[in-house]
Amino acid sequence: MLRAEGVSREFGSGDAVTRVLHDCGVEVFAGQTVAIVGKSGSGKSTFANCLSGLDKPTTGRITLLGHDLATLDEKRMARLRAEHIGFVLQKDNLVPTLNIEENVAAPLIMSGVKLSAALKRAREALDQVSLSHRARSWPGQVSGGEAQRAAVARACVNEPSIVFADEPTGALDEENGLVVQKLFRAMVKERGAASVIVTHDLDLAQGADVVVRMAKGTLVASGWFG
Ligand SMILES: Nc1ncnc2c1ncn2[C@@H]1O[C@H](COP(=O)(O)OP(=O)(O)OP(=O)(O)O)[C@@H](O)[C@H]1O
């Protein structure tokens, strides 16, 4: 499903180059949840962004859903995202000019699903994260935790093959954190999808099949719990 080898990422140029990732690799199979853990600043988000194609590594090779990411142009990458990949980003998850149900429906509409059918599925996805009552609210009117649950609903609405989630429970209380954990787990185990989750949440990490620990831009350990 996902394979990365020799991934490094540098920012800046000339004397001001900062190397944030060094020779990182990981393999993710269908039916697996992989948690990426480590201290703040260790490179987790940078690595996850490279794995999902949101960022380009400086060196290394990443194969996602059968595609070498280096060979995909923006248009093909956008299509792969809309049809097969779910994202929960660390911030700025929702489009402020769309209401909550429109935000959740967006990946379906981009994949060509009719508006009425997309909105219906969006409301079902919102129901799964106990957010039906917020369907017509605007992102500016909901709490941080509600926005995060809406982002989780949006990431799962198109039944993606793989979900990348950066701190998906960071703004949630224990109960809602558990709801999100169960949703991801069901998606992975029942549909044979995969998820890659950057997290500081120990419960979420312990529920993963594989935990990858990062320190100073390198992978220092990985453990199998499946
Ligand atoms: N665009 C950028 N330009 C320069 N440095 C960057 C850039 N993006 C990230 N970095 C640096 O790379 C390092 C790793 O950042 P990253 O966000 O990947 O860490 P993280 O482990 O996800 O942290 P956190 O848990 O706090 O979210 C940090 O020192 C950060 O300042």
From TrEMBL:
InterPro entries: AAA+_ATPase, ABC_transporter-like_ATP-bd, ABC_transpr_LolD-like, MacB-like_ATP-bd, P-loop_NTPase
UniProt protein name: Putative ABC transport system ATP-binding protein/lipoprotein-releasing system ATP-binding protein
A GO cellular-component term linked to this record: plasma membrane
Matching SMART domains: AAA
GO MF: ATP binding; ATP hydrolysis activity; transmembrane transporter activity
Source organism per UniProt: Umezawaea tangerina
Annotated keywords: ATP-binding, Lipoprotein, Nucleotide-binding, Transport
Record keyword Calcium present: no
Domain of life: Bacteria
Pfam (any one): ABC_tran
